[in-house]
Amino acid sequence: MQNxxxxxxxxxVAREESLSGAGKVLRLxxxxxxxxxxxxxxxxxxxxFVKSPQGYALTAEGTDMLERAAAAERAMLAVRxxxxxxxxxxxxxxxxxxxxxxxxxxxxxxxxxxxxxxPALDIQIVALPRVFNLSRREADMAIGVSAPxxxxxxxxxxxxxxxxxxxxxxxxxxxxxxxxxxxxxxxPMVGYIPxxxxxxxxxxxxxxxxxxxRLASNSVAVQMNMIRQxxxxxxxxxxxxxxxxxxxxxxxxxxxxxxxFYLIRHADDARTPRLSRFADALVAGLRAEVARLQVLDx
Length: 298
Description:
The radius of gyration is 22 Å and the shape is elongated. Strand 1 and strand 2 (55-58) form a beta hairpin. It has ten helices and eleven strands. Mean pLDDT is 85; it is low at 81-87. The strands form two sheets. Strands 3, 4, 5, 6, 7, 8, 9, 10 and 11 form a nine-stranded mixed β-sheet that branches. The chain folds into three domains: 4-80, Winged helix-like DNA-binding domain superfamily/Winged helix DNA-binding domain (Arc Repressor Mutant, subunit A), CATH 1.10.10; 92-159 and 260-296, Periplasmic binding protein-like II (D-Maltodextrin-Binding Protein, domain 2, 3-Layer(aba) Sandwich), CATH 3.40.190.10; 160-257, Periplasmic binding protein-like II (D-Maltodextrin-Binding Protein, domain 2). The protein has helices spanning 4-16, 19-26, 30-44, 60-80, 100-105, 107-117, 169-175, 204-207, 220-228, 273-296; strands at residues 49-52, 55-58, 92-98, 121-127, 141-144, 153-168, 189-191, 215-216, 233-237, 247-250, 257-266. The relative contact order is 0.14. Keywords: DNA-binding, Transcription, Transcription regulation. Residues 1-59 form the HTH lysR-type domain. This is LysR family transcriptional regulator.
């Protein structure tokens, strides 16, 4: 049985995937941390990491160790925070992983409200255009645009949202009207970098038969700013439009896409009252905020 300090250091290295990153979190010298990990592996008689210039990647034994160490961490936190699940409010730190559209335009308002209601709660939003690995504890919970079917996960649909083609009023005044989908061939398209689309649900332009993407980014926020600057036509979330004056939807009756957000949690966390209370509040807030923003743009 390993002591808690060993597990704490191991968790940091596993989550940060490097000694330098874990050292910053723990405020420890990376060389010291490397010696501690080597000693841990020697004590266990197994390799927990594959070391390379790119960092520390978990072996199969390391992944198994991560699951058990994370379970020990949750038990430790439950003992240290006996009041965090009471009516007095939530406390501690909770990290949410989310695609950047949700992270930029919806989550800030919802999390700000939750923080005001729970002064002892610290909320972290990690905005990354990729799928989060909850087994590696990159986040306590994640928001996704599709429901994963593998892994020990609990998935809950949060809300549907809609997307439409849009362009800036300045661009439309210069380039002329767009009366049909066929007209899009004569206009530069703004969208995702094709080989960086991390979920099939985000391949909007393929569904429209669009070809070349003249201006591309892996970030929804960057795409929106490209459209605002008159870069061309792109598919945008309706909930983003209240933040983009001068951008308006086109072909509204012809092109309308519907997608959904899902809350994804590790199965073990479903038994943690503190995280479950936060998840319920988060889902309620996201549903209300998406509905509010889409009404504002109607």
